[in-house]
Amino acid sequence: MSSEYTLIGSWALLIGKTLDSYGLNGQQLCQKHSVDLSLAASPDHRFDSQILAELWRAAVVASNDPAFGLRAGSLSGPSTFRALSAAMWMSDSLRAAFQRNVDYSRMFATTGDAKLVESTGTLSLEITMKRDANGELLTSLESTDALMATVVTLCRALYRSDFCPSSVRLMRTKPDNTRPYSDFFRSDIEYDAPVLAVSIPTAVADAPLSSGDKELAFYAKQAVENYLARMDQNDYSQQARHHIQALLASAVPSCAQVAARLNTSVRSLQIKLKAQGTSFQTLLESERCQQAEQYLQSTLSIGEIGFLLGFSNSASFSRAFKRWKGTSPAHYRRTTLSVNTQ
Hints:
Strand order of the largest sheet: 3-4-7-5-6
């Protein structure tokens, strides 16, 4: 798979399994949408995000269930996502499981960035989904439902079957029928949220889990890290992004600098990135945007953040940020701080 934005093949297997649960032929529908489940069963196979997004939407139509993603998430288990599932399910606390989700989220998918956000008495697993140049999500809303349902299913399996999160944030618009969502999550739900999030009480996050097994979790973690190493070796855009990130600490890097670090020519780098559906400038802008979002959660001024990201002045930074996110850095900061302190 050459796209920069990919998902582990296990998602396709989960979609097929969920279709089967409706009495449908999951394998047949997957094949119809260019998803080969025999390839999905291969540990290292990944699918382009757009291909799976189309499959998710087709599954909703075939099942006639707008909440298809919830059922898919509820059917996830300790082996669904291979070593990553095992590492999370063997965690000695929900905090540790959430942290592994953050640390290794690229194994799930490269279409979002996960982080933990802690406020008074609450721990939140928050996922910011990436968008294309037109502001469209790189995945489907059904998959975001499934992702949040997977997290809650994990909590109920490890902690208590009657577990209810403090709150859930979904990116989808409020559906006409909210019953499946309220019945599944059994908590306050915010629709049309800018990010995905599951929030749980800190006391629950830190409660020891009887199912925790540090030795098995260690071996599962090693397997995940080996997987990511293989993934990076085959992902030229990810290697380039790592070098851009490192070079940004001192100045805005050039394509020639990154090419030199990869022991290749500028032309060769450009060709390889194009084959993966991206470009050096796209990766640079994406990395600057991500770093800007992180800096805006600190006490640094807008001017200081712009300087750190290589902009000549705060006005240039503000224009770039508005192009990236559709809003000013000041407004983004106010909105983010307001959400995280609620």
